[in-house]
Design a protein that fits this description.
With 229 residues, the protein is an all-alpha fold. It has two domains: 183 residues, Four Helix Bundle (Hemerythrin (Met), subunit A) (Up-down Bundle); 30 residues. The protein is built from eight helices and no strands.
């Protein structure tokens, strides 16, 4: 395919930026934990997510770096224009995934850690992307995965995607158990207002309605000020 090199480069750049972002936030996330993960933490629910992510990154990097003759067996049999179209569609997924990944990390700040735990003076973060979904970092990874899938058009990546999602569902549920234990009713109320990976439509509609009302109020005030002058 003529655009294979472009799709491979786009995927490789995304993986490098994602890895660089994760390395940076791991290095700055040095705030001490309030305590070690409690005995109630179910480690069996955390390991699958790490394993699924490792498989995804390694295999996507392998497809992005090798010549076509080595990866052609795992490529969807698409016409050239369809393949080109999917390659371009992958770019917004890469961009959205990276932006959401950075924004979510920046928002949660020092409270993020590689393992599930509550840190010293830990606060429940409910603003920014966390005001709409409880696990925007995982949503960002899903977007990035879909980008690699569309760019590389791989049967193996398509088959692995349900495993990838299921592993993060387990991870997110275990994380929510710990958060509920630490924050109690405050977290239960927060969970009722937000989606796990996707925002609740009622919340979006309410925010849009409030924004429209504020815009109309400002427009009315501006018009009234102009009439008074």
């Amino acid at each position: 395919m003529e655009n294979l090199l472009f799709r491979q480069i786009a995927c490789a750049v995304f993986l490098l930026l994602l890895g660089g972002a994760r390395y940076y936030f791991v290095s700055v996330s040095t705030h001490p934990a309030d305590r070690s993960p409690p005995p109630s933490v179910n480690w069996a629910r955390q390991i699958p997510a790490y394993f699924a992510s490792t498989v995804w990154i390694i295999y996507a990097a392998w497809l992005a770096l090798l010549p076509e003759q080595f990866v052609g067996w795992d490529t969807w049999p698409l016409s050239r224009w369809v393949s080109n179209l999917l390659g371009w569609v992958a770019v917004p997924f890469f961009s959205a995934g990276l932006c959401l990944f950075w924004y979510s990390h920046y928002t949660i700040g020092r409270y993020w850690s590689m393992q599930i735990q509550l840190k010293e003076a830990h606060r429940l973060v409910t603003h920014g992307p966390y005001g709409y979904v409880r696990h925007p970092l995982y949503t960002a990874l899903f977007l990035g995965y879909l980008g690699t899938l569309l760019a590389l058009q791989s049967w193996m990546l398509a088959a692995w995607f349900p495993v990838f999602v299921a592993s993060y569902v387990l991870f997110a549920r275990e994380e929510e158990n710990i958060m509920e234990g630490g924050f109690g009713e405050a977290y239960r109320a927060y969970r009722r207002q937000t989606g796990m990976f996707l925002p609740r439509w009622r919340r979006i509609c309410a925010d849009v309605s409030r924004a429209v009302v504020r815009w109309r109020a400002r427009s009315f005030d501006t018009q009234r000020t102009g009439d008074d002058e």
